[in-house]
Amino acid sequence: AAFGNVHGVYKPGNVKLQPELLDSFQKNLGPRVGYEKPFFFVFHGGSGSEKSDISDAVDFGVVKMNVDTDTQWAYWEGLLKFYKAKSGYLQGQIGNPEGEDKPNKSYYDPRKWVRCSEETMRDRVIE
């Protein structure tokens, strides 16, 4: 069964989740079928949800949560932070704050900034 809000991210408070409904569904059907939690819920549109709502939803049977918008932002944020921190090295192949003849390959190498993006996305998922 599915549960959640709309896709995308919205200002906190604009979407009101009611995870307690999931608990009532479980309690209503559970005794009839002999399982404490007969439903395995998927939380659609979880990006931007309050942490307390997420925690309650998991307690009440959510086994999968979709957070694509949050992870997209986290990925972008890693790239943005990398660029801001290294911008003096990302203006050309040669020449940076250390000298006009210094190479910049190790800064614009995609493996560097992709890694930073992956780390911020990982951290967001853990959060």
Polypeptide structure, described:
The chain is an alpha/beta fold and about 130 residues long. Helix content is about 50%, strand content about 15%. It has helices at about 20-35, 50-60, 70-85, 105-110, 110-125; strands at about 1-5, 40-45, 60-65, 95, 100-105. A 3-stranded parallel sheet has the order 1-2-3. Strands 4-5 form a two-stranded antiparallel sheet. α3 (about 70-85) packs across α5 (about 110-125). It starts with a strand and ends with a helix.
Backbone CA Rg: 22 Å
What are the low-pLDDT stretches, counting only 5+ consecutive residues below 50?
Answer: none
Which strand order do you get reading across the main beta sheet? 1-2-3
In total, how many beta strands?
5
Strand-residue proportion: 5-15%
> Average pLDDT across residues?
89
The topology string of helices and strands comes to: EHEHEHEEHH
- The share of residues in helices is 40-55%
The major pleated sheet works out as: 3 strands, parallel
Distance between the termini: 25 Å
Number of helices: 5
Overall outline: elongated
Structural class: alpha/beta
